[in-house]
Amino acid sequence: MIAAILVALVGFFAGGCLGVVLGFSAASHKDVLQGVRPTTKNRLILFLARPTREMKLLEVIVFLLLMLVWLAVFFGLVAAPAIASTRLSGDSPPLILLAYGCAAVAWWVGQKFGAHAWSTMS
Q1: Per-domain residue ranges of the chain
Q2: pTM for the full model?
Q3: Which own/partner contact pairs does 71-79 have at CB distance under 8 Å and 24+ positions apart?
Q4: What whole-number distance in Å separates Cα of residue 109 and Cα of residue 33?
Q5: Is the dihedral of CA 73, 79, 85, 91 positive or negative?
Q6: What is the rounded CA–CA span in Å between residue 70 and residue 59?
Q7: Contact between residue 15 and residue 104 where contact means Cβ atoms under 8 Å apart
Q8: According to DSSP H, which parts of the chain are helical?
Q9: Rg of the chain in Å (alpha carbons)
Q10: Cβ 59 vs Cβ 74: under 8 Å
Q11: pLDDT digits (tens, 9 = 90+) for 53-108
Q12: What is residue 54's DSSP assignment?
């Protein structure tokens, strides 16, 4: 019972994190390609939410490094529910369907939340 709750929490956390980031970035990407600029004072958002053709060489290198770090975090978050499921299930059947079911629901909700967060910023 405790294992199922922990696996569900890991699934919700991983799916929610992925959904928020991907929903936010998809909405910002669509708007930036249409020429909409964010009205925030957040320097990180202003750095990331602009066309790459406007970046200098050093900014492109920093952007590339940030994307490589995000790639590692992405794969870690995708693998986290499976790892938690296999480690916590013990001798009982794996809880992987529960883990990825929770992750899928949280991903969907997170995408809506991330897109809404972008729309309030732009």
Answers
A1: 2-121
A2: 0.81
A3: 74/18, 77/14, 77/17, 77/18, 78/14, 78/18
A4: 24
A5: negative
A6: 16
A7: yes
A8: 2-33, 43-48, 57-88, 96-121
A9: 18
A10: no
A11: 888 999 889 989 999 999 999 999 999 998 998 888 877 777 888 899 999 999 99
A12: G
